[in-house]
Write a structure and sequence with these properties.
single chain, about 270 residues, alpha/beta, Rossmann fold, six-stranded mixed beta sheet, four-stranded antiparallel beta sheet, 8 helices, 10 strands, globular
Length: about 270
């Protein structure tokens, strides 16, 4: 099911209307998000939330996932309000969060347990398909401690894709990987996204990563978190994070950060 049609005729996949969120902390009242309005349409693919620490990127992702409730506003997926976690949204975190006592195949199968009307044999077949998609078919019997960091994140990606969610939510999933492994996985992930055409909301501190992977960059401000600018990225795929085109767009976004007086750490924004 799709949400209401937008003026250009494309359905709204994700609609965020007037979302604000505050927290109480030891230092006082903190406004994480302020009056967020965002629409991601059905045909759009990867939208990256980029901003300095404290801009509420992960909080917004948690609200979309149904793990947090906004103080004001609402979030709709395919026209339906979010009231909690659901099978239509899967989350991939910075840590792989895999079960060490299960094999790679069993970890992916676990993500299908809550999917109705699917037999054990079908779960195994689906899990094998997605492990093959992420290049780990021959490691299906391996336990998690036998896999490298990049391989663990591939298993986590396969587990997130296997239930076929409407939206995949990714919270800095490659931040803990070394540079060489990240570059390898960027190419793999782009190939998977081109094949799946999945709607993805991707949180990152790294501007170059966002441009390499994203079709749309949503630049957020530091606390309170607001969407400052929306940058479409019309580069052909596959993209190389070290290319001149990625560097050029990166400078454009960094200039926007400076324009909005956003302090940022080069180690975070890449």
């Amino acid at each position: 099911m799709s949400g209401p049609a937008t003026p250009d005729g494309r359905a709204s996949r994700l609609l965020i209307e007037g979302v604000s969120k505050s927290f109480k902390s030891a230092s006082g009242h903190v406004t994480a998000l302020q009056d967020i309005h965002l629409e991601i349409r059905e045909a759009e693919s990867v939208s990256c939330l980029v901003g300095p620490s404290g801009s509420g990127k992960s909080t917004l992702l948690a609200i979309i996932a149904g793990l947090e409730r906004p103080d004001t506003g609402r979030v709709l997926v395919d026209g339906k309000p979010i009231n909690g976690p659901g099978r239509d949204r899967m989350v991939m975190f910075q840590e792989s969060a895999l079960f060490p006592w299960l094999t790679a195949l069993e970890n992916v199968m676990f993500g299908l347990k809550l999917k109705p009307g699917i037999t054990s044999k079908q779960r195994r077949e689906v899990a094998q398909y997605y492990l093959e998609m992420v290049g780990l078919a021959r490691f299906h019997r391996a336990h998690i401690h036998e896999l490298s960091g990049g391989m663990k994140q591939r298993v986590a990606l396969a587990r997130s894709l296997a239930p076929n969610p409407a939206i995949l939510l990714m919270d800095e999933p490659f931040a803990s990987l070394d540079a060489m492994t990240r570059e390898q996985i960027y190419a793999d992930v782009q190939a998977i996204w081109q094949k799946q055409r999945k709607t993805v909301v991707f949180v990152t501190h790294n501007v170059r990563e966002a441009i390499c992977l994203g079709d749309r960059i949503l630049l957020m401000s530091a606390s309170p978190g607001r969407i400052l600018e929306d940058f479409p990225i019309a580069l052909d795929r596959p993209r190389d994070i070290n290319s001149i085109d990625v560097a050029r767009h990166s400078l454009e976004i960094r200039d926007a950060l400076v324009k909005h007086n956003q302090n940022y750490d080069e180690r975070e924004t890449g």
